[in-house]
Amino acid sequence: MFTSLQPKVLSILKSKNDVDAKLQEVCELLKKEVAHYDWVGFYFKNGDKEELKLGPYAGAPTDHTVIPFGKGICGQVAVSNQNFVVPDVKAQDNYIACSITVKSEIVVPLFVNGKNIGQIDIDSNTLDPFTEDDERFLEFVNGEVAKIL
Ligand code: SME
Q: Is the whole-model pTM more than 0.85?
């Protein structure tokens, strides 16, 4: 499934739309095509501030449009520079709930020239759905997105 999504992601990123429109389309594609992706969004470092700001996303609107570094799964990834797979959000202390239907989450940092400038964040209503295939695929997506930023 992820293999067939890769060319679709590339074609969206190659289009003539502006960056936000492309990222929006990527979010919608992933949410639609991957059964266990229920909310897909990008967060980016907010200028010089030690916080993340919500960018394009697909899924229910969230109150968490700004997340301080260190807070929640997203804020921890902003600091750790590492993928964070959460099989069961109930088992996490430092977690920011966006919706009561969410059971698991994966956050993969996005690097431009080796600098962590944001992340892709996926929420799932399924318990423990993420495998290394998700990680490799989302690293691919972020790697391609980095080229257009
Ligand atoms: N759950 C995230 C907050 C962002 S929402 O999932 C959209 C976190 O703990 O950082």
A: yes
